[in-house]
Design brief:
The protein is of the alpha/beta class. It contains 8 helices and 12 strands. The strands form 2 sheets. Strands 3-2-1-11-12-9 form a 6-stranded mixed β-sheet. Strands 4-5-6-10-7-8 form a 6-stranded mixed β-sheet, with no helix packed on it. A hairpin with a 3-residue loop joins strand 11 and strand 12. Helix 7 runs antiparallel to helix 8. The longest helix is centred in the N-terminal third of the chain and has 15 residues. The protein starts with a strand and ends with a helix.
Length: 254
């Protein structure tokens, strides 16, 4: 079975729709999300609605912040998450259907787990050690104490997001960026790996295309997907509570 693993959608409806269409064109039968469905972007409600039918979804720090108080957020991220919270928790009309939809979104977000383990495969938003908030950056391969402790929490394979920088970490202290891979990355032998699946809605590796992976149980393939960035950017510009910089960064992938 082919499984698409997405993360860090951040309210970017155009990127999410394009990624889902691409995954289905590749024969994907199942979808997992590693969190941050909302935050920064202009369509939190619509993105939650598209993710709700997924087989599994993990809680992200922006999803948590939309439910509770944001911690450690920049001023711009905090302003955007308060706007996002209002969009998600307040019905947009008085109809029974809109009220029920609003309640369904809130129930969905409130029930999201911080981590999911299936056999020797772990799914988190941040890291195996701190599923919600810990960042694992490529340069952390040089921070042995942190690196070792994180890998101690992994049985074989861990999928994560949070940094928006896609690539594969090995237990031996190597990081391979997704842009360096020419095809599938295969998991051979008795090692351990962390796979950052990148970001659908706000890439930060210099490539503005949406990013996700397809996992078949033995390997991953990174997919980069074009979408109508200018449409998303125009929506962001029209919302006073979201800094224009959140739209600008979509053009460069930073």
């Amino acid at each position: 079975m082919k499984r698409a693993i997405l993360s860090d959608i951040h309210g970017n409806l155009e990127a999410l729709e394009a990624s889902l269409a691409d995954a289905r064109s590749q024969g994907v039968e199942e979808f997992y999300c590693l969190g941050d469905i909302v935050g920064y972007g202009p369509n939190p409600r619509e993105c939650v609605d598209l993710v709700r039918p997924f087989a599994q979804t993990i809680l992200g720090n922006h999803d948590s912040a939309a439910l509770f108080d944001p911690e450690g957020f920049s001023a711009g991220a905090e302003k955007a998450i308060y706007w996002t919270r209002a969009q998600v928790e307040v019905p947009q009309g008085d109809s029974r259907q809109e009220i029920d939809s609003c309640l369904a979104r809130m129930r969905f977000l409130c029930k999201l787990p911080r981590a999911l383990r299936e056999g020797n495969v772990l799914y988190v938003h941040g890291s195996a050690r701190n599923p919600l908030n810990e960042y694992v950056f490529p340069e952390d391969v040089h921070c042995k104490p942190k690196y070792v402790k994180i890998f101690q929490a992994i049985q074989r394979l861990c999928f994560q997001g949070h940094t928006h920088v896609p690539g594969v970490f090995t237990q031996r202290g190597q990081f391979t960026r997704s842009s360096e891979l020419q095809g599938p990355y295969r998991f051979h032998g008795d090692g351990k790996w962390m796979v950052n699946v990148g970001s659908v809605g706000q890439p930060r590796d210099g490539d503005p295309r949406a990013c996700y992976v397809i996992f078949d149980g033995e390997s991953v393939v990174y997919r980069r997907v074009e979408y109508d960035r200018e449409k998303t950017i125009a929506k962001i510009y029209a919302i006073a509570e979201i800094d224009r910089a959140q739209g600008d960064r979509l053009r460069e992938g930073h």
